[in-house]
Structures are given as structure tokens and as C-alpha cells.
């Protein structure tokens, strides 16, 4: 008689555990969705690049080169230079600058020259591996911040190749 009672009490407890886990999962998922909706910024409206841009103004992906600007982003011309040590290694870097407000093409050209000059002082050992690349990004971001006096809000690395 006791064996029958113990089997009957196990079945409802398993069913209740499964139901409780399912309800908690739904509550957690709903809470995550609600928090995401409250904390995430609203999606930006899509705007099109005007068709009147010069023929050489846009790159393959439609981001303007230094001579043309759109949405506060200026893509700098590619920088190709040799490293300080070993001198036979070359680096190619493409970056885009995001300005706070209206872009300044003259400032972008100055930043372009500053980045090119800085890359000539870097050795291969300094930029090897993920940590070295992060240091390079931080150094370039700091140089851009100093040169632009806060007018450039973001430096976006498009390509980085060492040969």
C-alpha cells in the first residue's frame, strides 16, 4: 500500500516542476524582451545617399571618399607605408572618421597625414596579435581625439593588412 502512494506522489511533483520551469522561462523571456525594448535606442531611419555625388566620390560600398561626405562620415584614402622595423614589412590601413556635426574635410586630411606619419614609427612587434592591434587602435584614436579636439567621435577601421 505504501508503494502505490509513493508512485502517485512522484508523478504530480514532476509535472509541477516541468510546469514551473516552463512558466519561469516564459516570464524570463518576456522580461528580457521588455528590458530590451526599454533600453535599446530606437532604430534610425534609413536615408539615401544623394545621386548627385561626383563619380569618384564613393567607394565600392557607397561610403564617401575624402572629397565627399555624407551623414558625418568621411572615408580616408588608404594608407600604405612601411613599418619602422623590419623595414621590409608594409602595412595598409583604411579608416573612416565619424564627425560630430558637419564633417571637416581639411581636418580629415590632416588626420590622414598624422596617421600615416604615426604608422611609420610602429614596429611589427608592437602590433602583433589581437592585443597589439588593440593598442594600435587605441593609439590612433587618441591621436585623432587630440588632433580633432573632440569633433571626431569615432574612428572606424575598414581594413588592416600587414605584408
Write structural notes for this entry.
It comes from Rhizobium meliloti (strain 1021). InterPro entries: FliL. It is a single-pass membrane protein. The chain crosses the membrane at residues 15-40. It is a single chain. With 163 residues, the protein is an alpha+beta fold. The chain folds into 2 domains: 1-43; 73-162. The protein has 3 helices and 4 strands; from the N terminus they run H-E-E-E-H-H-E. Strands 1, 2, 3 and 4 form a 4-stranded antiparallel β-sheet that branches. The longest helix has 38 residues, at 2-39. The model is unreliable at 51-60 (pLDDT under 50).
Explain the layout of strands and helices:
Blueprint lengths: L1 H38 L33 E3 L3 E4 L7 E10 L5 H15 L9 H20 L3 E11 L1
Antiparallel strand pairs: 1-3, 2-3, 3-4
Strand content: 15-25%
The amount of helix comes to 40-55%
Largest sheet: 4 strands, antiparallel
How far apart are the first and last residues' alpha carbons, in Å? Answer: 81 Å
Unreliable parts: 51-60
Order of helices and strands: HEEEHHE
Amino acid at each position: 500500500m505504501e508503494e502505490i502512494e509513493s508512485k502517485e506522489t512522484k508523478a504530480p511533483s514532476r509535472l509541477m516542476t516541468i510546469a514551473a520551469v516552463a512558466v519561469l522561462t516564459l516570464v524570463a523571456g518576456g522580461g528580457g524582451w521588455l528590458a530590451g525594448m526599454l533600453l535599446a535606442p530606437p532604430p534610425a531611419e534609413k536615408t539615401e545617399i544623394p545621386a548627385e555625388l561626383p563619380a569618384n566620390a564613393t567607394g565600392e560600398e557607397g561610403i564617401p571618399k575624402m572629397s565627399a561626405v555624407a551623414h558625418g562620415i568621411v572615408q580616408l584614402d588608404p594608407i600604405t607605408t612601411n613599418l619602422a622595423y623590419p623595414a621590409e614589412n608594409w602595412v595598409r590601413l583604411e579608416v573612416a572618421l565619424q564627425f560630430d556635426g558637419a564633417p571637416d574635410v581639411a581636418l580629415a586630411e590632416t588626420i590622414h597625414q598624422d596617421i600615416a606619419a604615426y604608422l611609420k614609427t610602429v614596429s611589427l612587434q608592437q602590433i602583433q596579435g589581437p592585443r597589439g592591434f588593440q593598442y594600435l587602435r587605441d593609439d590612433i584614436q587618441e591621436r585623432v581625439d587630440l588632433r580633432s579636439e573632440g569633433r571626431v567621435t569615432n574612428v572606424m577601421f575598414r581594413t588592416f593588412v600587414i605584408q
